[in-house]
Design a protein that fits this description.
The chain has 13 helices and no strands. It is mainly alpha-helical.
């Protein structure tokens, strides 16, 4: 019991000493509840003078100023020290300079800049889309050919250009060939596509070779599309049955190359060559059409209807068709 009492008195004395030290060194005095049953209860309950009263002294009168000045100085040093900021900015700038734009990005930017210049003088002829929508759609059609870049390493530059033109120009022609401004925009669009193709293969080809190839291929693709549309329009004028229209279009398309080859091989004057071509094309195409239609062909493919069909093919009623 004596040992317990002695230890309790020592512990209470230590708490009293600690409380006195904390109270004398703090701006806002705090009171600590006395230990229950200790000899320091009377001392712990003594009133402590409030801050600002007589006898009160702040042991750290410059503590706030020193702390604030030090924090401000640290912040100013952190902001004014170039070594903490400049290296990261310099590395970021160098990284940007070392990453040149990709070929696809350069071609796309070329199309974005070139397409509005071609279409702006013709925008009044567009009666469906706004000018912004028109440019957006044409950009989508022509940029579709950029998918060829995925396997560009395995292709010769001629194959790369041909594939790019087939995808981009065919998509553009299929969507816009019936527009009033289509033929008038052909020259400008060909120039834009030529520049885009040159940008794709400029490391491997000569500019003159690329320009000649694009001019030829662009014309072939465009004329083929207009030729198909002209055949379809002529068939629709001469015949009203939809099933018969499809069969006649197939017969005319499949027999056209042979008639053209025979007229070219035979040669002669322009009129003689034209007669050879038209005669062979009428003969072969209508024979094929009779076979496709069957016994009903004699009552449908009359002489008047066939003459009307080829009159539309040779001299189309619309001046805007091929």
């Amino acid at each position: 019991a004596e040992h317990v009492k002695c230890d309790g008195e020592k512990l209470a004395a230590e708490h009293v000493k600690c409380d006195e030290f904390r109270t004398s060194n703090s701006k806002v005095p705090r009171s600590r509840p006395p230990l229950r049953g200790s000899v320091s209860s009377e001392v712990a309950q003594e009133p402590v003078p409030e801050h600002g009263q007589e006898g009160d002294s702040d042991p750290w009168p410059f503590c706030d100023d020193v702390q604030s000045d030090g924090a401000d100085a640290i912040e100013e040093d952190a902001l004014s020290d170039p070594e903490d900021v400049e290296p990261e900015e310099e590395l970021h700038d160098v990284a940007q300079e070392e990453e040149p734009p990709s070929t696809e990005a350069e071609v796309r930017k070329l199309l974005v800049d070139g397409i509005p210049k071609v279409l702006e003088p013709l925008k009044d002829l567009e009666d469906t889309w706004s000018f912004q929508e028109l440019c957006r759609r044409v950009l989508k059609y022509l940029s579709g050919g950029l998918s060829v870049l995925a396997g560009a390493e395995a292709l010769a530059w001629t194959d790369l250009v041909a594939t790019f033109l087939e995808k981009s120009v065919n998509s553009y022609n299929n969507a816009c060939c019936d527009k009033k401004w289509f033929l008038k925009a052909s020259v400008g669009m060909q120039a834009v596509v030529t520049e885009a193709a040159w940008m794709l293969v400029q490391k491997d080809a000569d500019n003159g070779e690329v320009e000649a190839m694009v001019a030829k291929k662009f014309q072939e693709i465009t004329e083929a599309k207009l030729w198909e549309d002209t055949i379809w329009a002529a068939v629709q004028i001469a015949f009203k049955d939809r099933a018969l229209q499809d069969r006649l279009c197939q017969a005319l398309k499949r027999t056209y190359p042979a008639a053209q080859k025979e007229a070219t091989d035979k040669g002669g004057s322009g009129i003689a060559c034209c007669k050879t071509f038209v005669g062979r094309w009428i003969h072969d195409s209508m024979n094929r059409a009779y076979m496709m239609v069957g016994t009903a062909g004699s009552g449908v493919l009359t002489e008047e209807k066939v003459l009307e069909l080829f009159r539309q093919l040779i001299a189309p009623a619309s001046q805007d068709t091929f």
